[in-house]
Amino acid sequence: MIDALLNFDFVRYSLISGLLIGFVAPFIGAFIVVRRLSLIADALSHVTLGGISFGMFLITVIPAVAFINPMWFGILYAVVGALLIEKLRTSYSNYQEIAIPIIMSAGIALSAIFISLADGFNQEIIGLLFGSISAVTLSDTITIFIITLIVVIFILSLYKELFLLSFDEEYSAVIGIPKWIQFLFIVIVAMVISASMRVVGILLVSALITLPVAISLRLTKAFKQLILFSIVIGEIAVIAGLVLAFYLNLSPGGVIVILLVLGLALVMLIQKVRSHSVKGVKTHEDR
């Protein structure tokens, strides 16, 4: 792995991008999970695929635009999809969750249409679906770095407002927290999902956003600790997943997600064993 890092640019780009994604995805994931919007990541990932497939179709029709990275089309589609979700949530105030399947369905439909128009599946599409170490370029790494920087500045600048929005949306409206913060938050989520797709894959990106938080929820109750634990777990999973994927020639996204699932199962098992042990001790003392 050390030799590969020294000799191959794509390995270095993948590791740097992975470290950035392992940080920023769980960072914003803590706010998403607490707001009970975990499925929004799935919806926006499918919309992102629609944007990327549109970009690939556009390149086949107009070769002159081949210099444009299809990832930018994915980001654009994800941002528009995020804004539409927020608009639909406002329109269906009593059935807010319906916004997510509506946008997800539209994203899947657009993906199917543009992929077929762009001559069907190719290796690049497969890499985007499940992640690929060799797919990450210098341009992708720079884009991911910029998005990470934007997310960090946004959350640190508006932490108090985002905290209130996450735990009590109605109260935040009563005390006058501006609506644009909520819209901007959804846009930021869309950008993170678009940035994560190269390393983790579009179909698995929501897992990297939610699973580290799911594990951390079982380990801590304080929100700042939740964020910290989620980031640490995300980084460990990404680094271990990239290393294993490199040596085993597997999809990094799949390996990263399986490691997180195993981590969650292990934490739940340990807590269950401890719970039974405590109950056993109490029963023995009662006797």
From TrEMBL:
UniProt superkingdom: Bacteria
PANTHER family attached to this UniProt entry: ABC-TRANSPORTER METAL-BINDING PROTEIN, METAL ABC TRANSPORTER PERMEASE
A Gene Ontology annotation in the biological process aspect, one of them, is: response to zinc ion
Q: Would you name any one GO CC term?
A: ATP-binding cassette (ABC) transporter complex
Give the family from UniProt.
Answer: Belongs to the ABC-3 integral membrane protein family.
Q: Can you name this protein?
A: Metal ABC transporter permease
- Record membrane topology: Multi-pass membrane protein
Arranged from A to Z, the UniProt key words for this protein are: Membrane, Transmembrane, Transmembrane helix, Transport
Q: Which organism is it from?
A: Staphylococcus argensis
What InterPro entries does the annotation carry? ABC_BtuC-like, ABC_TroCD
Where in or outside the cell?
Cell membrane; Membrane
